[in-house]
Amino acid sequence: MAEQLHFGWTYDLTPLATFRMVTRLELLTEQARQLDHQQHSILELREREGVFRYVAQRQLDLESGSRTRLFSSRPMLRQTHLWQPPNWDGSRSYETTGEITGMAVTMAGGGALTPIGAGGTRLSLSLTISASGRLSGRKTESGIAESLSKTIEAEHEFRLSWLAGQAQGSF
Q: Residue 117: what pLDDT?
């Protein structure tokens, strides 16, 4: 069994401006600081042959009472996002994967930027979390899914507050 996560948000920005926002070094760095991501680092943030690649790592914060917290040190989460080139309408899709040090867990999924209305964009994300292990796999999946859900929603809230403090023309 695996945990499935689905998210969808709308922004009053064009798809290009939304893409620039979610891949902007300044935003990503400040977001990590505001959300208190420990040992956060951006390993790659570049475009090559039309594909934009974003790779970051940070400590994974798991609930202290969770059975997934069996380590003397906190595991590291390494996330990779591969954004495809934009379509004629500005929409674009991406694939995402995640690896956690010392855990037999796979995270994979994807999402899209889709134009809506006059100048709006929907950002979506679907993620599947799978863990091996007959006895602890389901509990591990559940613990990681809960932690990631909280973080992903907090990142969205940060983007909204960041946008409120920015002039939209600065993208």
A: 87
